[in-house]
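Recall that a protein's primary structure is simply its ordered list of amino acids. Everything else, from secondary elements to tertiary packing, is in principle encoded there. The following example makes that idea concrete.
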Amino acid sequence: PEGPLGLRVRGLHVRYPGAANPGLAGLDLDLLAGSRLVVTGPSGSGKSTLAAACLRFLEAEGGSLELVGEASTQDLRTIAGDDVRRAVGLCEQDPHIFDSTIADNLRLARPGAGVPELEHALEQARLLEWVRGLPDGLETPVGEHGARLSGGQRQRPALARALLADVRILVLDEPTVHLAEPAARAFLADLPAATDGRTLL
């Protein structure tokens, strides 16, 4: 659907391949376009399963999960996975950082992005000042799995990457799980401005 997007979930059942029990069973959820919705629960309650289903990394075995636009609604199962992920992005709890430069890691989201676009995404993620302070700036290697970055520094490039992708729905899967409390509070405080205009789960 065109324009701002929301999600409508009805009776959703999702099971990991080979699992005896479903990761989600009978979930109903309404995420209005432009709104923010927080899903809470203990470890193992299905939060990451919901995130995976929203991006079609896991297929629903029952119920429905629909993208809701201003004038139309479409079942995710009728949309190619890559097309879903152009509209719905994920900032996960253990973001993968490739053994390359900061710029290369960001350009995974938008291969043709120029320096101004990369810097704008970093600024939204409150990482630009730090990157500009590095001897090689955007061309700084981050090491294997981001070994040269702290936990908080790994989370913010992942958010910048999601913002650079310009998705209309952003799914955050426990993005502060590896952060110390001050860094986690700062990350969450920055989210509303950084994700302005997007639907956030």
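The chain has seven helices and seven strands. Strands lie at 6-14, 24-31, 60-68, 73-75, 88-91, 169-172, 199-200.
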